[in-house]
DNA sequence: AGGATAAATGCAAGCGTTTTATTTAAGTTT
DNA sequence: AAACTTAAATAAAACGCTTGCATTTATCCT
């Protein structure tokens, strides 16, 4: 009455060949005479044989599975990347083990370890900050790792990103050009390199070019949630900002709603530039002006890069920087 | 130079015990003397031994991995469910293989087959419609299946949902009570049971109680995208509707924007009730009035149910219906 | 035809665990 | 102290497949 699986051995017996031959036809090995191949295929079909991927994995030391560490699937920025990852993965016959990390350091390390225990062939990491411990685990294991939408100043593993610094500089420059002298910088924690280093540097560079002194009181740190954005608007306003560059779309939506709910007109009285180009930016009114990151592509390219690393193919460059653009939509006055 | 993994055998040798004993301490089997346990644990730690989950899976016929089929991670409704699923899964030491199906029938069957080939211990399916072929695969395999946010009229597998029919009836009744005589019904394909059967029946029931005849021209089918919603508003307006019940939040956002972009006031001139309570409903302005489904919980409960099925525990009921509520927010006039 | 080369197939040793049946050690009981 | 129980540990057989090597069979030359 138990799930009596039929194995490669059953197929071999029924087809009067050896297991090795069945294995060969299953794996598309060319060293099989067409007539035997046909015979085996028929038996496979008749018995409805389905190769056991676990046994395969043990014997071949390949699981055709990659681990994907994501802060939160519910965040449109990351889920868009994840979508690109999964599409390319399935194109290359890989499956994805998806694990939410909640940007919780110990949990990340633990998740990484269970992924490695499951013998994934590669790992794609999305996150905000790579702790030393995590970095150590990355380099200790021989499993290839690619960062997607995530930078690590210590460029040891592969990564796919855009140039956050120049994109930010350009956005802020736009804001300044529209007459805003006090532009707020709103992002997640400054401990995260993308915020604390790249974006902030871009922001400062834009100020500098406009001969505006950097004012620490215009820099705000918040959670990546619209709730947090709504709450922070008041402080931004109090700081005298007339515009804001925001490092996350959901946060930007919150900030905008904070303004709107107080009767502040956007963009007439307050301009907003956001950074991620998730579909959220086009779902709210006014539509958010944004840096147009190719989210899906970042995931897709990251996965493609990972396939190369897993195959030990030569790769020109492990640190990939994709192009971006700027879209002035409804939250900026610029013509 | 190769990744020379250290195996259970190495640990056994170093600790002067048999593999079996090492296996026992790794698996927390009580039949091992405290002193030996300690000794083994030390060696494990010193050698930095990490059990190979693939070998484990082969030997034990359990992979502690469940397959999750999702139409699109990028859809907030489903990703919210997925979040609940993953949290409970990791609580029970399971990992999730996430596969996007794009509601593409052949792809779904293929995805299911590769999940089964990978010997997942269970499957959670999210989707819109279960084809006969898929249903056949479900019942053919002995692997437990639970549907999350997905109904199958033929209740053979476990499922977790809310009562879509009465929730819809209640929402539409609200709309009618507010004075709307022509309420549009906007959803995804009517081929999908949730739309074509449950919600539509709820809609009809509400009309009937108000003695309003059902008018086929007020029923609209659309894709689950805000683009599609924007496009359809015009038709809804032409049909003379002054309000709409919408089966998907992103679609509802689109519909609302279609109205807003034409200068139609919401809710003053057009009221909207949506169905999923994703965070989208609170991110747009006005906030969408909605059926408040416990999205996270649906996923969580589904995963919990699956763990019971995987352990062959007795379960009172495989078809779980969770409570919902109604939230009148900014897109309805009713107090 | 006969030897040589290439193409197909088979054999069997792993892959790293779990698990069952056994053996050995350690207590208890009388 | 012999006879029994119970607890701990071991040995070895799976688990279902891949793969290097050996072997057989077919094909090609001269």
TrEMBL record, chains A, B:
Superkingdom: Bacteria
Keyword field contains Transcription: yes
Phosphoprotein recorded as keyword: no
GO molecular function terms listed in the Swiss-Prot or TrEMBL record: DNA-binding transcription factor activity; transcription cis-regulatory region binding
Classification via Pfam families: LacI, Peripla_BP_3
Record-linked SUPFAM superfamilies: lambda repressor-like DNA-binding domains, Periplasmic binding protein-like I
UniProt xrefs under Gene3D superfamilies: 3.40.50.2300, lambda repressor-like DNA-binding domains
InterPro entries: CcpA (IPR006377), HTH_LacI (IPR000843), LacI/GalR-like_sensor (IPR046335), Lambda_DNA-bd_dom_sf (IPR010982), Peripla_BP_I (IPR028082)
CDD domains according to UniProt: HTH_LacI, PBP1_CcpA
Domain HTH lacI-type: 6-60
Keywords for the protein's UniProt record, in alphabetical order: Activator, DNA-binding, Repressor, Transcription, Transcription regulation
Purpose: Global transcriptional regulator of carbon catabolite repression (CCR) and carbon catabolite activation (CCA), which ensures optimal energy usage under diverse conditions.
PANTHER family (alphabetical): ARABINOSE METABOLISM TRANSCRIPTIONAL REPRESSOR (PTHR30146:SF150), LACI-RELATED TRANSCRIPTIONAL REPRESSOR (PTHR30146)
Protein name (Swiss-Prot/TrEMBL): Catabolite control protein A
Lineage: Bacteria, Bacillati, Bacillota, Bacilli, Lactobacillales
